[in-house]
Design goal:
Length: 571
């Protein structure tokens, strides 16, 4: 008997669980992790040309005589490889002959160029304003553009470490409410940033809040739903993030201004923070932290909402102790992050999950944060969201029938194959390359869906948030490293794909060593984990022998005492 039995008796997946899961999932519609694609998008640009009107007048040229393209040819060099205007140089002197203007008495030599001494002119077709155009993060300063995403992911990483431990100590609900307010305030205030440094600081703190939201929302969902519905709920909840990618594309396209976009996707978190007071704290967490009376109150509340008022009288302290005796005894023990590695099965789970989380995030953000190279960024963001729908439906089917372990490994290995396949596709076949990239992103997204559910099911309640924080820390490291790998493209064009695909293959192999959790009740303690999934047969046999011996002690008389004693001594 355990908490899963209590959930079944108070309505299983009833009205409370539906409302609870939907409210926790709605914030996923406002994507934060991919926001940098649009707030830090690079508009078309070229060197600014000062006093252009005076210069054309000096040559007796009117605006009607030359098109914009012809006029730029006199001031901006053309890249011979791409046949486009260079972005970081200009001619020292106008080259009117290149614009088709007949200039007599001029000796045409190789024109001298210089850097953009007067700044840049930005096109406003794809973006009206981004932090790139705001602070001229182009040419020699372009690495600072990538740095903003790395800093944001650094905040997510810090949040996973900090909020993971704090929520195991202070509760899921309290930390979730705090994270909502933190993102609402700091994310909205980001729009008022007047310098690059201020922007990066605010993004770092916003990233911390995002991590707190994701970790605590996942735990609150998992800990209030019955075992048999975890797969369905976990997968369907992830569709909110899928639709969030499409919503982000639409909002970004309609605004095209980084300041307005921050307000649009962050200010609704004030509303989420207000309605989050409705949430019930995890009863599992309350019991394991010695707050059994409060746990009973929350269980009664859920029973009433689910239309099971008769269970309010039935569920009392004695009832709770009979169902969760082991968990209540465990509440007297203090747990630390060291417990994630202290015992054999916990150690195996943690090491394998670290590899899976890192590689999933590494490959996902390697594909998702470089959309502009595939074409229209808004269309690509929409496609990257749409492909998640069939990919996650496939993952749902696989999770339900093949189990978590096979699904996790398959998603990683298939994404690796698709990434490797792109190495052999010529740059001329851009459509084929884009299709493979979209499919690869779909399977890495499915891998994310699986690993969030899988991790919550593998770690015991006493360490679930600590474990989620520990493993997702590697995910953030992967997301921070992914943009840096793109620099290897200058060494060898295929190298980034080799690195991304290789990491996915390694993680897919590691996933095969994880225990299966399909239709298995959530473990509550470290002992539960060791008993369920220990690969040493003698350990399980010893547990069974001890159970039989204890049963004999109760049923037998004096004659059984000797047998019991000798049996225990043999053990």
């Amino acid at each position: 008997m355990g908490f899963s039995d209590i959930l079944d008796e108070i309505g299983g997946f009833g009205r409370f669980q539906w409302i609870h899961v939907i409210l926790l999932s709605i914030p996923g519609l406002l994507m934060q992790n991919l926001l940098n694609n649009f707030t830090a998008g690079i508009p078309g640009h070229h060197c600014a040309i000062p006093n252009i009107s005076n210069r054309t007048n000096d040559q007796n040229i009117t605006a009607e005589q030359l098109s914009t393209d012809q006029l730029l040819r006199a001031f901006i060099p053309v890249d011979k490889r791409s046949s486009k205007f260079t972005k970081c140089t200009r001619y020292v002197e106008p080259q009117w002959h290149l614009a088709g203007v007949n200039i007599t008495g001029t000796n045409f030599t190789e024109p001298e160029t210089e850097t953009c001494l007067d700044g840049w002119t930005y096109q406003k077709t794809e973006f009206i304003s981004t932090i790139v155009s705001e602070w001229d993060l182009v040419c020699t300063l372009q690495p600072l553009k990538q740095m903003t995403q790395t800093i944001y992911m650094g905040g997510v990483l810090s949040g996973a470490i900090i909020f993971g431990g704090l929520s195991d100590k202070f509760g899921r609900r309290a930390l979730l409410i705090w994270s909502y307010f933190q993102l609402a305030v700091l994310g909205t205030f980001t729009t008022f940033a007047t310098s690059y440094v201020a922007y990066c600081v605010l993004r770092f703190l916003s990233g911390m809040a995002v991590s707190g939201i994701i970790l605590n929302a996942v735990s609150l969902k998992v800990e209030w739903i019955p075992t048999k519905t975890r797969t369905l709920v976990g997968t369907l909840s992830s569709f909110f993030f899928t639709f969030g990618q499409m919503v982000l594309a639409g909002v970004a396209y309609s605004l095209k201004d980084w300041r307005k976009l921050h307000v649009a996707v962050c200010s609704p978190y004030f509303v989420f923070a207000l309605y989050s007071w409705w949430y019930s704290e995890s009863a599992r967490w309350l019991v394991l932290n010695g707050k059994s009376e409060e746990a009973i109150k929350q269980i009664h509340r859920v029973a009433r909402i689910n239309g099971k008022p008769e269970m309010v009288e039935k569920i009392n302290m004695e009832y709770l102790e009979s169902h969760m005796h082991k968990e209540m005894q465990s509440s007297k023990t203090t747990h630390t992050a060291y417990d994630l590695l202290r015992t054999p099965v916990m150690r195996r789970i943690s090491i394998c999950l670290v590899a899976v989380w890192f590689s999933t995030s590494f490959a996902y953000y390697g594909l998702a944060m470089d959309l502009q190279k595939f074409g229209n960024i808004y269309v690509m963001q929409l496609l990257f969201g749409v492909v998640d729908i069939p990919a996650k439906l496939l993952a749902l089917t696989m999770l339900s029938f093949l189990g978590r372990r096979i699904t996790q490994a398959s998603c990683l290995l298939i994404s690796a194959v698709l990434i490797f396949a792109n190495i052999f596709i010529s740059q001329e076949f851009q459509t084929a390359r884009t299709v493979l990239a979209v499919l690869g992103k779909g399977f890495t997204s499915s891998s994310f869906t699986c690993v969030y559910l899988f991790t919550g099911e593998l770690y015991p309640t006493v360490l679930r948030q600590t474990g989620m924080g520990f493993t997702s820390t590697m995910s953030r490291i992967g997301s921070m490293a992914a943009p840096a790998v793109l620099i290897l493209d200058e060494v060898l064009p295929a190298l980034p794909s080799i690195v991304y695909g290789g990491a996915a293959v390694i993680a897919g192999v590691f996933a095969l060593f994880l225990p299966e959790t399909l239709n298995v009740p959530l473990p509550e303690t470290v002992d539960d984990v060791e008993e369920k999934w220990s690969k040493k047969p003698h350990v399980q046999k010893q547990i069974e022998k001890e159970s039989v011996a204890l049963q004999d002690m109760k049923e037998g008389g004096a004659e059984c005492e000797d047998g019991k004693t000798s049996g225990l001594n043999a053990l």
